[in-house]
Amino acid sequence: MTKEKYQHDPDSEVDAAEQDMLSDDVETVSKSEMKRHMHALQALGERLAAMPDLWPELELPDRLLKALEDFNAIPSREAKRRHLQFIGKQMRNIDYDAVLAAIELRDSGSDYQKNLHHEAEKWRERLLIAGRRSEEQQTMNDLITEFVSANPATEVQVLRQTLRNAVKDLQLNRNRGNTKKLYQLLRDGLARDLQS
């Protein structure tokens, strides 16, 4: 078996100036840089696999969704490592920055989540303190109005009722989960306002 030798075709010759223009348009990427990019895609894929509730929001390709589902079902560490390589290859065609931003937004360790938690805690404490003091009914109403005007997605009646139930539980020294419901309601209102 012999290799075919190609004859030089003078008609297809590209002059030196045109060749320089073509080489300027092509961006050269080192092998190390390509590996770093692939490892970054794999790490992002691993984080994404841990957040299945986020998948519908990102409109991921079906093949990537299937790969992420399969990753969570694989028990072997070595098989997971190989499957992450496959996930990394599938993630080449998606918007890396958009997925990373969505994950950071949802990541419980992110600054956004911490700030959201602290803000909701502050509002809950302010409302519960005002609600426990019967002489400060006007203060409680003012705080509710202030919160709702700053976070218009929150339903006023639901907030008032949940606050009344939480204050009543605290006064009767019982735990029915109303303070937690109040926190969740405040947190959801703050989150909706920050996302829009």
UniProtKB/TrEMBL annotation:
Pfam families associated with the record: DarP
Keyword Secreted assigned: no
Disordered: annotated segments: 1-30
UniProt-listed NCBIfam families: PRK05255.1-1 (NF003593)
Biased composition (Basic and acidic residues): 1-11
Superkingdom: Bacteria
Keywords: Cytoplasm, Ribosome biogenesis, RNA-binding, rRNA-binding
CDD domains to which the protein is assigned, alphabetical: YjgA-like
Annotated protein name in UniProt: Ribosome biogenesis factor YjgA
Skewed-composition ranges (Acidic residues): 12-27
